[in-house]
Amino acid sequence: MAAEYKKYGLAKDNDLTFLLRKRLETVDISEYQAQLHFEDSICISIEGECKLDKKAINYAELRQLAGSSVSEVTSQDEGATNVFFADGKRLSILDSNSPNFLSNNRSRHNDCRLIPMLFS
What we know:
By secondary structure, the chain is mainly β. It has one domain. The chain contains no helices and ten strands. The two termini are 23 Å apart.
């Protein structure tokens, strides 16, 4: 009997349009996490693998996105979320449990909307 796969990623039809046209103001980096702070107190916390323009990167490389606005956001069946920026760059946030993961938990914390990406 095959092991049951537990999917943690966002559903492909999840509405992420609240990110559209939001400018990335700052990128905070720690040893195991990156936080992308957008205007209107929107924050994306990344605690796993991400790619920029299909290339695996370290979190420090996310700083080059600062100042750019989101032009499109898509979710894939595998749980990956792609954030496209007005300057043409694409950030892919991956699910470490499937091929790609973004948690579907949203919460409010210190007046910052979080889309936590928690990996097991």
